[in-house]
Design brief:
This is Copper chaperone PCu(A)C. The protein is mostly beta strands. It has two helices and 14 strands, in the order E-H-E-H-E-E-E-E-E-E-E-E-E-E-E-E.
Length: 216
């Protein structure tokens, strides 16, 4: 039988009729009510929670990884400009191709000079001749190309102000695909190869500049 009021905070147990029979009550099985203590409630709650241990726990979704920034197609390391009081100067450094295809520099510009060209140095008729580099400067895929005195370089003609040691000179290189590379070169004294550039023409008819050793 169900004992009213025993559904909340009560426990029902069977006892012999003799133990629970009231005066005048017939023999039989009676239901007795026993109050559950707070400690008993706590134990029941722990048991109920233990039964949920097999349930899976969903971990929070991981935040999407931030993609690494893409390296520019062309960079330059250690760029510098030869100091000069007037006239001509040149810029050097190491061009670095960060792509899987060759990169070609087709022109250069700088606020230091109204006329900036890509030059090469070649031997002609027993003399070293500096001339514009036809087709531009090509940097191989994942390779480098040196701009250095006596070799390929960026030529500045008619510089608008003296280039002193430590001066910071801005440059912009334009690539064959239309991209650009902007960088700042630092003024640096260079004792060797202080050439006096004189107009000249090599045997193939290319206009260039003879590289003498006088200091103009």
């Amino acid at each position: 039988m169900t004992v009213p009021g025993c559904l909340s905070g009560m426990a029902i147990e069977r006892r012999p009729a003799a133990a629970c029979r009231l005066p005048g009550q017939k023999r039989g099985i009676t239901m007795s009510v026993r109050r559950i203590t707070p400690a008993g409630i706590l134990v029941a709650a722990v048991v109920a929670l233990a039964g949920c241990g097999s349930q899976s726990t969903v971990a929070p979704a991981a935040a999407p990884a931030t993609p690494a920034p893409t390296a520019p197609a062309l960079t330059i390391t250690d760029p510098w400009v030869k100091t000069a009081k007037k006239g001509m100067s040149a810029a050097f450094g190491t061009l670095v191709n960060n792509t899987d295809a060759e990169v070609t520099v087709v022109s250069a510009a700088s606020s230091l000079s109204p006329k900036v060209e890509l030059h090469e140095v070649v031997e002609s008729a027993g003399k070293m001749v500096m001339r514009p580099k036809e087709g531009g400067i090509v940097i191989p895929a994942r390779g480098t190309h040196q701009l250095q005195p006596g070799g390929d370089h960026i030529m500045l003609m008619g510089v608008t102000e003296a280039v002193r040691p430590g001066a910071e000179i801005p440059f912009t290189l334009t690539l064959k695909d239309g991209g650009t590379l902007e960088f700042t070169a630092v003024g640096k004294d260079f004792a060797g190869g202080q050439e006096n550039y004189q107009p000249g023409t090599d045997p193939k008819g290319h206009e260039g500049m003879d590289m003498g050793e006088s200091h103009g």
